[in-house]
């Protein structure tokens, strides 16, 4: 009888836990191509594809029509305000941003300041992006997502590789990082370099969206 008892108790315990536990923690998506200087980034793209597969409504910014450090991005009605500082800017200037490049077309966002803030007009349940040339000069990227009223906030160190400045590895490495938080109204996103301030990051293909829901 013991195996049967275990079989029956397992599902019952799971149901009880689901009924009383708080909202589940977000799903995280990460892939990194550390040696991506020659172009392709299959691991990062696989993480991107898995992230997108969870989403129904989706908006993407490729930065191709943008200029400057402070941006107002329509993003399909989500309305993202990117608040950059000195050393931040949409760029194509590879000569001035060694290692950084676009993952779509030509333009990307160059992040050289400590903290970049993105505020959404309309909340999203999911946020993701490609990061380029992150960690090759001692930088450490931390992403914080938060509800506007301060009722919910999570900070995630992006689990990318890090080598000291001058090491020579990781030039033009590409990563993808995404957070899917069903039922959460994310309205504020922070991207912070908590490591060597001399490590410039590139971002491209910023994605926000809502979780795909089954309709019956
Ligand atoms: Ca682009
Ligand atoms: Ca870098």
Structure in a nutshell:
The chain is built from 2 helices and 13 strands. It has a single domain (24-211), classed as Jelly Rolls (Sandwich), CATH 2.60.120.260.
Query: Would you count the extended β strands for me?
Result: 13
Number of domains: 1
For CATH, the homologous superfamily is named as Galactose-binding domain-like
**CATH-derived topology:** Jelly Rolls
Please state the CA-atom Rg, rounded to the nearest Å: 19 Å
Helix percentage range: 10-25%
Output the helix-strand order.
HEHEEEEEEEEEEEE
**Secondary structural class:** mainly beta
CATH architectural label = Sandwich
Report how far the terminal alpha carbons are from each other.
Answer: 38 Å
Bound molecules: calcium ion
Strand content: 35-45%
- Under CATH at level 1, the class stands as Mainly Beta
Mean pLDDT: 89
Quick one: overall form? globular
* Spans where pLDDT lies below 50 across 5 or more residues: 1-18
């Amino acid at each position: 009888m013991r195996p049967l008892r275990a079989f029956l108790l397992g599902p019952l315990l799971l149901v009880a836990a689901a009924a009383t536990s708080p909202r589940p923690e977000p799903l995280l998506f990460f892939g990194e191509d550390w040696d991506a200087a020659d172009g392709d980034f299959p691991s990062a793209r696989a993480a991107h594809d898995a992230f997108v597969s969870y989403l129904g409504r989706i908006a993407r910014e490729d930065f191709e029509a943008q200029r400057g450090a402070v941006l107002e991005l329509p993003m399909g009605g989500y309305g993202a305000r990117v608040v950059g500082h000195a050393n931040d800017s949409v760029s194509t200037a590879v000569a001035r941003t060694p290692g950084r490049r676009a993952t779509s077309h030509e333009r990307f966002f160059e992040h050289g300041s400590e903290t970049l803030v993105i505020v959404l007009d309309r909340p999203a349940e999911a946020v993701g992006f490609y990061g380029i040339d992150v960690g090759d000069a001692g930088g450490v990227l931390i992403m914080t997502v938060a509800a506007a009223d301060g009722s919910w906030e999570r900070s995630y160190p992006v689990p990318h590789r890090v080598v000291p400045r001058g090491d020579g590895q990781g030039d033009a490495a590409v990563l993808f990082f995404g957070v899917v938080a069903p039922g959460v109204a994310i309205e504020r996103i922070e991207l912070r370099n908590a490591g060597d301030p001399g490590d410039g990051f590139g971002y491209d293909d910023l994605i926000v969206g809502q979780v795909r829901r089954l309709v019956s």
